[in-house]
Amino acid sequence: MDLHLNETPEALSYHSKTQRARVITEGWTAANLYCPTCGAPHLIQFEASRPMADFHCEHCKQQFEQKSIEKKPSHLPRKINGSGYDAMMERLESPDNPHLLLLYHKDGMINNLVLIPKYFITTSIVEKRKPTWPKGRSKEWIGSYIWLEGIPECGKIYIIKDGVPEDPKKVLELYRKTKPLKARDLESTGWLLDVLKCVEKIGTSTFTLSQLYVFESDLKKKHPENRHIKDKIRQQLQELRDKGFIEFKGRGKYRTLF
Ligand SMILES: [Zn+2]
Questions:
Q1: C-alpha 165 to ligand 1 mean position (Å)
Q2: How far apart are CA 193 and CA 174, in angstroms?
Q3: In angstroms, what is the span from residue 239 Cα to ligand 1's centroid?
Q4: pLDDT recorded at residue 96
Q5: pLDDT tens by residue, 179-195
Q6: 234 with 113, same domain?
Q7: Residue 196 sits in a domain of what CATH number?
């Protein structure tokens, strides 16, 4: 996999640096990237006018949105810009919801490429931004932030890390392991991932129920409509056990399996 980004005649025809970077990085993906969810050799680029989705896989029919960011991060930033808030919310419910590809490049080289499977983007980590009035528009615009720091680590799958491509087999395996986290609907998936994130924050491979209850008020903020947070935490632990992410050790003790 060649990690150099090449200027193309199409890219050079754009004056805007951002547009040029978008054309170049999307060109790279179309030419070099395999499908990180099924392993098919290529991703197909959509026509440019399509909102949000940039690529699709002819084999597994999954869609991908690529965000390219000119930066050499030592670790992923806490948050990134999402699209318009209403469009973002609508997209989360849609069957065509794309997976996210975050491509970091600097000085013509790709440093990091991260796949965030679509089900990791839940309403809990999407924040509504303050309205702005774009120049020359008659209507206000409300954007969104995607809080990457709220996503459990297993939802950040590196395809390229610090300038080195990961083994595609490993990428596919990591993706396959996360698939059971997609629950029956957005709200249920959100709960499952929020509790998994709390387990991760404890930071040890064994933990107790009382250590998790410390996060009760944080979870209440994310799910204000729920009055029985502790019950919900216990229920999510059962689901995480059934999906192979944790193990019950008895007497309110648990062990992580991820
Ligand atoms: Zn595929």
A1: 18
A2: 16
A3: 27
A4: 86
A5: 999 999 999 999 999 99
A6: no
A7: 1.10.10.10
Q: What DSSP string runs through 219-235?
A: HHHH-TT-S-HHHHHHH
How far does residue 84's CA lie from ligand 1's centre (Å)?
Answer: 27
| Ligand 1 centroid, distance to 59 Cα (angstroms) | 5
Measured in Å, residue 97 CA sits from the centre of ligand 1 at 14
Do 23 and 96 lie in one domain? The reply is yes
Sheet strands side by side (includes 206-208): 206-208, 253-256, 246-250
Quick one: 143 and 235 in the same domain?
no
Tens of pLDDT, residues 59-90 = 999 999 999 999 988 889 999 999 899 999 99
Let me know whether 214 and 175 are in one domain: no
In a domain, 3, yes or no: no
| pTM exceeding the 0.90 threshold for the entire prediction | yes
Are residues 62 and 164 part of one domain? yes
pLDDT per position as a tens digit, 205-258: 999 999 999 999 999 999 999 999 999 999 999 999 999 999 999 998 999 998
Residue 102 near residue 161 (C-beta atoms within 8 A): no
Domain span at 152:
9-179
- Whether 49 shows a pLDDT value over 70: the answer reads no
